[in-house]
Amino acid sequence: MARLSRAIIHAGFTAFCFLSLNGAHAQTMSDRICAAAQAHLARTATLVAPAFLAAASLNSRSWQAISAPVSGASVGAANNVSVLYVAYVRPKGFEDAGAVSVRIAVPAGDHGKPTNEVEVYRPAIARGTNRCEPVGRYEIDTTVRLNQYIDYHADGGSRANSTLEDFHFSYPVYPRNCVKTDRGSLRRTFAFGSDVTRTQGDTLAQRYFRFVPPAYGVTHKFARLRSELHYRPAAQLNVACIGFTVPLNRNPATVTVGDYGFGSIWWADRTLSIQR
Prior knowledge:
mainly beta; globular
């Protein structure tokens, strides 16, 4: 297994493509990651199946290509790599507008503190780019309590959360239909793995009043949990791409990318394990 090695002065998760509601486009880290990854593909290979491309630097000329089967894949990163740049790419389909979810779980390690929150991020959807959201959608970039996230995406769970309701959106389904990403069975595909468990004793008072002292018990071992959801318009090139960064801080991490759409309501999870 190839290992990526380079010290990076960069922290946190990337902001994906920001599109203002009037359609203006500002280049973001996601754009830069995809541009670098696609340049690598143009030099080295023709993409015939979904894949991850990973590098320790945007300027790297040695991006590691990792097949992205539904059975999962892995890549190694040296201890001096603090942030990994990752592009999820797939060949252009006959209708490749759709939704892409990215769930990132970073273990706390021996000395870290497990989190009781999930970071949720959805970039803005520009007016006119998604026929199922004709007026566009504003960016969501915030946190929710872990139990709220779990309940919202569980079968029969509570959906009384306006942040998570706004987080989800509708995407095109061939030929002229629309499906919302939290519809029916799709909702549970946003859950983290079985090792991300509910917080014990997390009360309503602690959820809504931050000054109430915490008396809950976190039962999992992850320092950061992040859920991102992206609308991806039809690809202008032969490769559709979503770029993101994964902070490692000497820890491994797990990235799960979900495909939604591509001419149907079908989806598939593709997991990338980043090992140290």
